[in-house]
């Protein structure tokens, strides 16, 4: 079914959809085989959709306010006749927004709640009082026009799934349509050309069918279809959260996705990325998840296990924290964890094999070193533990790496000493206590969500970097720029950051500092981009290019800070960062840049206004006046460029 005739009818005399104004609508997931989008944004988000259900029809718009919008009247006139199917019956309208416009449709309209004898029922999506009756009404040939959004409901019902709990979806889900928490901002959207729209538009079930053929039989996907694989993965994951095993269309999709996942081994291509993202969700909703394991896990050797392993640890943190256990669960392996009564319902969660003061019934022992606890004799045995993943827990950081890279690690205590130095120096520059309130975590893995490394908790890196993280010789000899860069990201603070310009810039202050102060590697050798010739070249090019802040980022922006460091040293930065713990900062970049200029100037007791202006910073008259009594830095490096 291609819905071209339906769209031709619905869009007669309609050139655009006016969603302008403050109303924020929800995105609609069109997932039924007999459902179709009608109105979409340029990005493909659906705000208006229709569907066949049994012998009847339904149209949903993702904000009830649009039902009464005069500029949409031509469409609503078409819609109400499409839903009525020529019966010339009674249109029952529960939404007062829609009464005035629909009364001009030529059909008999009356204000009423749902009742028998209607041809079309018009309602909002905020009540499921008559959900069963409305579904039966449509299945038996009635028409339903429903409007509403799920985003506000999701905000006031945190932790609840809008697919399964939002009232409107109790009506719509089985009809192949669902209102999501994702939002669509108001705008003016061009009405589609039906024939081209059917050909070019994304449709969840259609692309799922095509992708299934691609995986199973090698059927070639079009460029347009390949571009939508990421969206298919997102929608597939959302759809599976519906967990509607009693719904035939849901079980059909689960069956299709199960067949797809079982036919491939991720992860290299966009297809593989999609399969990987779906595999976890399929496992969660599969009626027989254990039967999927042989397909999802190709290589899963048996490993020796320990029983009733007790874990004792103390945690005092206000933030989420993972607790190392020295245990591993192999893929598909299940265990039971006995938790003490005092931590039940206190927000504790298990992250793979982690917990607090618990007894783990069965797990695989892992190589695990903890500073101050693990003895050399312990380590000589622990490093041979069978788990493929190991953890090294030091004073302020925990490294999760493949076990292969620690099997030959003879002196983890020396590595611990080095990482303790690194982390203390990071704290020093940030003007923070040496003891981190929560240990940083560095996890190396086969696949990460973004880039070669990314900051956060935990910091993530590709598996290939693991050997460098645990080699004192490599770290002291060649440095560890990337890892320190990510640790620097975790020290950045919005009050002295000027996003997006400095996002990939100020984190490198820690890279330079640690390499020079801990590793003894001067900045020009720590990273090729820090060679003096390249630094000077960037400053000159920036100045001669008009000192445009739009190009002041990353290495160019870092040179501003390096020139300050060359003149005033690292202590100046430590004092500036310390000062920011006691002052409030404006939200806009202009205000923050002026505050930074004042703070740094007052810290070093020198007027730096001219210096910052030479870098194109928007230093205002008030800042210049405030700093006018301080001696001016008149021979700064940018003077030579005029």
Automatic annotation (TrEMBL):
<protein>
    <recommendedName>
        <fullName>Peptidase M60 domain-containing protein</fullName>
    </recommendedName>
</protein>
<dbReference type="Pfam" id="PF13402">
    <property type="entry name" value="Peptidase_M60"/>
</dbReference>
<dbReference type="GO" id="GO:0005886">
    <property type="term" value="C:plasma membrane"/>
</dbReference>
<dbReference type="InterPro" id="IPR031161">
    <property type="entry name" value="Peptidase_M60_dom"/>
</dbReference>
<dbReference type="InterPro" id="IPR035423">
    <property type="entry name" value="M60-like_N"/>
</dbReference>
<dbReference type="GO" id="GO:0044325">
    <property type="term" value="F:transmembrane transporter binding"/>
</dbReference>
<dbReference type="GO" id="GO:0090314">
    <property type="term" value="P:positive regulation of protein targeting to membrane"/>
</dbReference>
<dbReference type="InterPro" id="IPR042279">
    <property type="entry name" value="Pep_M60_3"/>
</dbReference>
<feature type="domain" description="Peptidase M60">
    <location>
        <begin position="356"/>
        <end position="569"/>
    </location>
</feature>
<dbReference type="Pfam" id="PF17291">
    <property type="entry name" value="M60-like_N"/>
</dbReference>
<dbReference type="InterPro" id="IPR051244">
    <property type="entry name" value="TCAF"/>
</dbReference>
């Amino acid at each position: 079914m291609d819905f071209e005739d339906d769209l031709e009818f619905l869009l007669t005399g309609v050139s655009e959809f006016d969603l302008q104004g403050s109303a924020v609508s929800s995105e609609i997931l069109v997932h039924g085989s007999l459902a179709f989008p009608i109105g979409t944004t340029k990005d493909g988000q659906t705000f208006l959709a229709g569907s066949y259900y049994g012998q009847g029809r339904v149209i949903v718009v993702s904000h009830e306010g649009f039902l009464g919008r005069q500029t949409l009247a031509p469409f609503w006139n078409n819609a109400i006749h499409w839903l009525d199917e020529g019966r010339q019956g009674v249109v029952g309208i529960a939404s007062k927004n829609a009464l005035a416009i629909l009364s001009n449709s030529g059909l008999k309209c009356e204000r009423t709640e749902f009742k028998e004898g209607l041809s079309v029922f018009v309602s909002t999506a905020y009540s499921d009082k008559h959900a069963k009756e409305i579904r039966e009404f449509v299945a038996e040939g009635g028409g339903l026009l429903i409007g509403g959004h799920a985003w506000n409901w999701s905000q006031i019902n945190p932790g609840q799934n809008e697919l399964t709990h939002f009232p409107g979806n109790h009506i719509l889900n089985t009809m192949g349509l669902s209102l999501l928490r994702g939002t669509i901002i108001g705008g003016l959207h061009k009405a589609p050309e039906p024939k081209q729209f059917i050909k070019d538009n994304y449709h969840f079930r259609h692309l799922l069918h095509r992708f299934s053929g691609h995986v199973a039989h090698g059927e070639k996907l079009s460029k347009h279809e390949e571009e939508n694989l990421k969206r298919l993965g997102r929608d597939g994951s959302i759809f599976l959260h519906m967990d509607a095993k009693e719904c035939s269309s849901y079980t059909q999709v689960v069956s299709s996705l199960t067949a797809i996942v079982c036919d491939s081994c991720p992860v290299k291509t966009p297809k593989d990325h999609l399969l990987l993202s779906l595999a976890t969700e399929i496992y969660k909703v599969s009626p027989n998840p254990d039967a999927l394991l042989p397909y999802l896990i190709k290589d899963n050797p048996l490993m020796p296990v320990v029983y009733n392993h007790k874990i004792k640890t103390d945690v005092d943190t206000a933030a989420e924290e993972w607790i190392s256990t020295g245990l591993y669960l192999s893929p598909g392996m299940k265990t039971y964890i006995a938790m003490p009564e005092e931590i039940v319902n206190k927000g504790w969660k298990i992250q793979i094999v982690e917990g607090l003061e618990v007894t783990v019934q069965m797990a695989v022992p892992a190589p695990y070193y903890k500073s101050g606890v693990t003895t050399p004799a312990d380590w000589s045995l622990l490093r041979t533990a069978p788990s493929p993943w190991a953890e090294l827990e030091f004073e302020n950081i925990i490294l999760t790496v493949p076990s292969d890279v620690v099997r030959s690690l003879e002196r983890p205590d020396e590595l611990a000493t080095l990482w303790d130095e690194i982390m203390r120096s990071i704290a020093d520059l940030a003007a923070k206590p040496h003891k981190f309130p929560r240990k940083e975590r560095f996890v190396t893995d086969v696949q990460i969500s973004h880039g070669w490394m990314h900051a956060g908790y935990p910091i993530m890196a590709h598996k290939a970097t693991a050997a460098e993280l645990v080699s004192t010789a490599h770290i002291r000899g060649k440095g560890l720029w990337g890892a320190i860069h990510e640790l620097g990201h975790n020290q950045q603070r919005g009050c002295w950051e000027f996003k997006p310009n400095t996002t990939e810039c100020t984190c490198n202050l820690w890279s330079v500092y640690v390499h020079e102060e801990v590793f003894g590697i001067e900045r020009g050798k720590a990273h090729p981009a820090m060679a003096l010739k390249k630094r000077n070249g960037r400053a000159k090019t920036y100045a001669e290019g008009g000192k445009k802040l739009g190009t002041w980022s990353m290495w160019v922006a870092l040179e501003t800070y390096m020139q300050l460091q060359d003149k005033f040293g690292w202590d100046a930065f430590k004092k500036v960062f310390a000062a920011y713990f006691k002052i409030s900062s404006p939200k806009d970049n202009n205000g923050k840049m002026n505050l930074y200029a004042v703070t740094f100037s007052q810290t070093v007791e020198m007027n730096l206004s001219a210096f910052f202006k030479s870098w194109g910073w928007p230093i205002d008259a008030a800042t210049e006046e405030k700093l006018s009594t301080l001696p001016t830095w008149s021979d700064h490096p940018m003077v030579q460029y005029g």
